[in-house]
Specification:
Elements lengths: L1 H9 L12 H30 L8 H23 L13 E3 L4 H11 L1 H20 L1 H4 L5 H23 L11 H20 L3 H4 L1 H15 L6 H5 L17 H30 L5 H21 L4 E3 L1 H10 L4 H15 L2 H8 L3 H24 L5 H17 L12 H8 L2 H15 L5 H13 L1
Antiparallel strand pairs: 1-2
Helix pairs in contact: 2-3, 2-4, 2-15, 3-13, 3-15, 3-16, 4-5, 5-12, 5-13, 7-17, 7-18, 7-20, 8-10, 8-17, 10-17, 12-13, 12-14, 12-19, 18-20
Length: 458
């Protein structure tokens, strides 16, 4: 009898993946997850379209709006697939998926050179690569220790700082860039985010970026730097469209994006491991890791066909799982439904696009800082031997250094080489640390110390 009661109680538990807690218990936590991811899910599309503005490959306001909506659709599909796997595609774990910031440097470099069609064409191939990685994760994972993946994450964070600072000044191509009103709202947004994040508790802390954007938006309205015309013009309902952009497949763009998908797949292992450790008190199984990465590949392929940008597991939502220990898939199902509803409402996307770039910059620089420090944390989780320090230092130096060079310095190299290795620091840094980690002899701190002692005796 007691066993039956225990099972009945367990079936309604927030802390059991198969638990079915009632709506009153589930919805507040679902809303928490939505608040934690929704800004991050919309910003990559806003940043990409902003970077493409005033270039030959700029897209229309309607297309920019659709990118946000497609991002919501794809995030909902990805989250559903992770909690309800289909044919071993999906982790069957309590994770939230969304459009990833990590791809922004590569997306913008491809978009500026070739246009939005090349972004989605290379994403389609990258999604296939991710699926293959998922199938072979056990064989590949050993080549990406924390030192290697951490260097990649650190480089991603560093490469995004100029984007945020240009936004804080009003955005590239803005004839009034540098206006003190832009800096004022950017710094106000940053200050509110910091206060909420450092001093807030509960929902205030979790929604720090959203609260900061609201504060910056209100200040922008007061300073008359918000354009509300797009909201009024936007429709109330939209549906996902098949092939909204013609796909293109430039070889250098495909190679660059494929490298990013491999790196992102390895990062997903970290997020999935954090989820199981923090919420389920165990390590993930090989099937869970493989299914999670394969799902991301499948969803990215679907995204390329409907206009959704590349996805990833969301670390901030992993943090909520670790903090609350709530793992019931019903909680995550409600979050996915809320994300999907937002995808059907163009007014929501138009509202997001009306946020001045200065506000976006003030809010996102904290996100980019967190990405950078996450990379640093990963790096230092490995031994800081001379060998490892050399690998990390060279990866960052070459990756970050090459994008600072002028056209003349790399003018003799072929176009494909410049696209793959000089348009974004992430790819070169990844290649350098990956190769050096394989070819340089592995030495621990103890072995290096013993080697020095041997030299002294000689």
């Amino acid at each position: 009898m007691e066993t039956k009661v225990a099972k009945k109680n367990q079936s309604k538990s927030l802390f059991d993946f198969e638990g079915k807690p009632d709506f009153k218990k589930s919805f507040p936590i679902s809303l928490q997850h939505l608040l934690a991811m929704i800004v991050g899910n919309t910003l990559p599309a806003i940043v990409l379209t902003g970077q493409l503005a005033n270039t030959p490959h700029a897209i229309s306001a309607e297309e920019s709006l659709y990118l946000i909506q497609a991002g919501m659709f794809i995030a909902a599909i990805a989250t559903f697939l992770q909690i309800y796997p289909v044919m071993k595609v999906g982790a069957k774990l309590p994770v939230i998926m969304g459009v990833s910031f990590a791809y922004i440097p590569v997306l913008t470099s491809i978009g500026i050179k070739y246009g939005i069609g090349a972004v989605y064409g290379s994403q389609l191939v990258g999604g296939i690569v991710a699926f293959i990685v998922g199938m072979n994760i056990k064989r590949i994972y050993k080549y990406f220790p924390p030192m290697v993946s951490g260097t990649v994450v650190l480089t991603i964070g560093l490469s995004l700082y100029p984007v945020a600072l240009n936004y804080m000044a009003g955005g590239n191509g803005n004839p009034n860039q540098g206006d003190l009103r832009f800096w004022a709202v950017a710094l106000l947004t940053l200050a509110v985010v910091l206060v909420c994040n450092m001093f807030g508790k509960g929902i205030v802390k979790l929604a720090a970026i959203l609260i900061g954007i609201l504060a910056g938006y209100l200040a922008s309205l007061f300073l008359n730097i918000v354009n509300l015309k797009g909201i009024a013009a936007a429709a109330w309902l939209t549906l996902p469209r098949l092939m909204p952009f013609k796909l293109e497949f430039p070889l250098d763009a495909v190679i660059t994006m494929s490298v990013m998908f491999v790196v992102n797949s390895i990062q997903a292992v970290g997020d999935l491991s954090s989820t199981t450790a923090g919420g389920l008190n165990r390590t993930p199984s090989e099937d869970e890791l493989s299914g999670g990465i394969k799902a991301n590949g499948v969803v990215s392929v679907i995204g390329s066909l409907i206009g959704g940008l590349p996805t990833a597991t969301y670390s901030q939502n992993v943090g909520i799982v670790t903090l609350t220990k709530v793992v019931s898939k019903h909680v995550f199902k409600y979050t996915a439904i809320l994300i999907l509803i937002a995808g059907f409402l163009p007014k929501f996307g138009a509202l997001m696009l009306s946020v001045p770039q200065a506000v976006i910059g003030g809010a996102t620089i904290t996100v980019f800082a967190q990405i950078t420090m996450s990379g640093m944390k990963l790096i230092t989780s490995d031994e800081m031997s001379s060998r490892n320090i050399t690998i990390v230092g060279l990866g960052i130096a070459l990756g970050m250094g090459i994008v600072q060079l002028g056209d003349q310095a790399v003018g003799q190299f072929p176009e494909w080489f410049k696209m793959v290795f000089t348009s974004s620091p992430v790819v070169l840094a990844t290649v350098v640390v990956f190769i050096l980690n394989i070819i340089l002899p592995k030495k621990s701190l103890a072995e290096e110390e013993a080697e020095r002692e041997m030299m002294e005796k000689e």
